Amino acid sequence: MKKIEWKISIKLFPTVLQWFLNFCLVILAFILSFLLLKEIVEFFKILLLRDSSDYTLFLANILLFFLYFEFITMIVKYFKDDYHFPLRYFLYIGITAMVRLIIVDHEHPLDTLIFSLVILILIICYFIINLTPLERPKRSQLFNKNEEN
């Protein structure tokens, strides 16, 4: 009797964690959506109220907008792809964040060079990912046998 209860609780635990994760991601998506709308308001403030010669601030806000957008897109993709985060989206976010850092903080040449090298590494990683197949690998026979027991 206790062995059956233990098996049920072991199978129930990942389901409960998955529901908790999904709930937290939905909350995060709403927060990011709010921040995305707030960034649109900032665009209008920069364009209409401030001197339009500050292109660095405007470009930094555009890249921040894309960061919010990419995170929301990644959450949507997570739910559409059966609870899987594609690695490509993390690379997109990393490249965008590094470009934003170069635009905003470009006073130190060594930092800019390091940020550029990070972008190069992320692009190489993206190239390597594109060489690999898009499908998930099949589970090995070892795992299938353990699940049957």
From TrEMBL:
Pfam family, one: PsiE
GO biological process, one term: cellular response to phosphate starvation
Subcellular location: Cell inner membrane
Annotated InterPro entries: P_starv_induced_PsiE, P_starv_induced_PsiE-like
Location, primary (coarse class): membrane
Membrane-crossing segments per the record: 12-37, 57-79, 86-104, 110-129
Family statement drawn from the similarity comment of this UniProt entry: Belongs to the PsiE family.
Cited PANTHER family: PROTEIN PSIE
Protein name (Swiss-Prot/TrEMBL): Protein PsiE
